[in-house]
Amino acid sequence: MSEEKSLNFIEEIVEEHLKSGKYTSITTRFPPEPNGYLHIGHAKSICLNFGLAKKYGGKTNLRFDDTNPTTEETEYVESIKEDVRWLGFEWAQELYASNYFEQLYGFAMKLIEKGLAYVDDSSSEEIAQQKGTPTTPGVRNAFAERTPEDNAKIFREMREGKYEDGSKVVRAKIDMSSPNMLLRDPIIYRIKHAHHHRTGDDWCIYPMYDFAHGQSDSIENITHSICTLEFVPHRDLYDWCIENLEIFPSHQYEFARLNMTYTVMSKRKLLQLVNEKHVNGWDDPRMSTISGMRRRGYPAEAIREFCDRIGIAKRENLIDVGLLEFCVREQLNKIALRRMVVFDPLKVVITNYTGEEELLTSENNPEDPNGGHREVPFSKELYIEREDFMEVAPKKYFRLSPGQMVRLKSAYIIKCEEVVKDAEGNITEVRCTYIPESKSGSDTSGINVKGTLHWVSISHAATAEVRLYDRLFKVEDVANAEGDFKEHINDDSLHVVGHAYAEPALLNDKVDDRYQFIRKGYFILDKESTSDKLVFNRTVTLKDGWAKEVKKG
Ligand code: ATP
Ligand code: MG
Known about the structure:
This protein is an alpha/beta fold. 26% of the residues lie in helices and 24% in strands. The protein is built from 13 helices and 27 strands. The longest helix has 16 residues, at 40-55. The two termini are 37 Å apart. Residues 31-33, 41-42, 44-45, 227-228, 257-258, 265-267 line the site of adenosine-5'-triphosphate (ATP).
């Protein structure tokens, strides 16, 4: 990571502004609407906004854009705060657009007084019709001729609750023939008799997003208001409001939103997955949410690294989820504790092992010189993975088979002497001998074996449930795939191993620990784990199995 990274286009703008003295310091904001949990796309915006302020010694506000009372909830506010913190960022101030309702009302009144806004009693259909089309200009109706005094009076009455939902709106008086449809007298206030999660029943009129966002930026002296490309057409209105209200000139800059393969990222769609029980909640480990990824075991650092690697673009593209998984593996390889867990057990009896049970030691992480060791009990009866044994093995089969030797990880070399079967011919047990001089770390046997297997001592093993996750969708570009996005759900995205056998060190480990189950993948303890029953989530496989699967067809 020593190579100098070139600046992204927003960093270039910021450096130019600081150099020219346009600003002496910068302020950014992350402005989520609290109508759902944050997803990996938001992580990109968070890393960008907080990252800029960090790099240039400025500050970042966390502002909840909570102008839509019917979809917003405190649960979402709390989850958003938790996620931003977990990602490793601290906000300068926690703010709410709803804190500014009084000021925003004042701003609308100011436009009314300047003759730049009016109350319109038309229905939403009429308003839509009068708007024209991108190629034909719109027409202004008679309500636009109301005097500022009349408008001010009606607007006050709207606030007092005199009118029904939808009976009136306030519109900015801009330009009904503008090529930018958003400037054709956009609605800035509407009536909504709805309870708000913060302001309760104080208000029955609410500002539209476009009348709240820029002004909130301005109130907070935001220098660089960064958003995604779909807001490009909104920029003219953003600037118009600031200019005509004569308030702090915040500016909007747009970058390409993150789209990622095999997943969806709109809160509306994520909410459907939750409500229709395609997943088990917002933090289901298969979700693209930050809380889902956290529960799945993705380290925050890996997510930040991913956001850094994809960079900031001006054009939309689709990022391979494989890159995110690559960042996760890279990070986990450095920190994960190595442990042994057998998913599908086959009993091995070491017939010549007469010793007492014995504690072997094994490295926690060969990549980490300070990672320390753990004790692993060895005994006469062990489990290995059923798939690691073959009665009739092909050439070059380096796992266990009759007459063949393998090493048991951190323990001894064993040789398969006999296969025991039940009446139906199923293999129930494999009888082996061990080579006492072959103990790992002090091996004087001189025997070389090619295969090393993971194993657990039966009497010491803890039972565990292991949840193996796969992609939630079967197609790469879910948002652009034909039909409803839910038709592309992968019905096989969760596979549960009900009774796995785990080495006992896993009983003492902690919730936040990351594990590599040797030869199996990376895992984390799930929140549903209890002292009676361990539950693990597979964070990611050791290698990318999906790419191969796709190629096979
Ligand atoms: P969604 O469409 O998922 O509901 P949103 O844009 O409505 O997302 P907001 O809560 O309004 O969600 O977004 C907060 C900030 O995060 C905004 O500045 C928005 O531009 C940014 N953001 C949202 N989705 C992405 C994404 N996929 N990539 C990058 N930034 C995003
Ligand atoms: Mg939004």
